[in-house]
């Protein structure tokens, strides 16, 4: 098993460059645009990190939607396990687990979603590329347009349902002073002044705004652990924290940053505002 130093959910481009060809490493390109759903796949086809496979947010990292779901529900367990195996990923219980490195070009938003999903489904050997695609290219590292055909892996998913919360659970937490609901969306969306995606503007009652961009710098790199620890210190008094965003994507960046800060990460409300505003009749 390829080893890395440090206890962090991130890897640096220089580390990945040394290990990108290791047989037990799989790189996953998660580039995506909510406004142009095929843009990421087109970018991947044109150029990507050598050996990387492509993960589409809608097709691969989400399950079927319905009238009362959020925009990006959890993928179905067996379906997601088969998809991971098709990418050449072995689960932890095989004895030869694959170390997965996810990247994007959107301040970790979509890569963090894959990171969280893999952890949720029982795979601990996963990290996000610090700086993403831009960081890799700015370092002058090689790129490729060749689409790999990985040898199928063996992946059995073992979900951790306690890491996520559903609509009913969140509804029961609203108004409880010992619980902090963390909205990862921009201040404009949190305050209801702008809503470019969902049918209604606003937020879950009582939620506080921790914009996911605040934990990442302008170069798409996660801020230093000590900065993150200070940023999240205001949550120390909360007995429970729940992270959400529009549909369980950018909230994963906040969860990732809590892990990088050495904190116990928040549970994730995957449905987010997109589910809440539909089901709550807001």
Short description:
The protein is α/β, with parallel strands linked by helices and 282 residues long. 29% of the residues lie in helices and 12% in strands. A 5-stranded parallel sheet has the order 1-5-4-2-3. Strands 6-10-9-7-8 form a 5-stranded parallel sheet.
Q: Would you write up a description of this structure?
A:
The protein has 282 residues and is an alpha/beta fold. The protein folds into two domains: 10-159, Rhodanese-like domain (Oxidized Rhodanese, domain 1, 3-Layer(aba) Sandwich), CATH 3.40.250; 162-279, Rhodanese-like domain (Oxidized Rhodanese, domain 1), CATH 3.40.250.10. It contains ten helices and ten strands. It has helices spanning 13-19, 39-46, 77-86, 109-120, 132-138, 167-173, 187-190, 225-232, 251-260, 272-279; strands at residues 10-11, 25-29, 53-54, 99-103, 126-129, 164-165, 179-183, 208-209, 240-244, 267-269. It has a five-stranded parallel sheet. A five-stranded parallel sheet has the order 6-10-9-7-8. α2 links the parallel β2 and β3 (53-54). It is globular, with a radius of gyration of 18 Å. The model has no long low-confidence stretch (mean pLDDT 96).
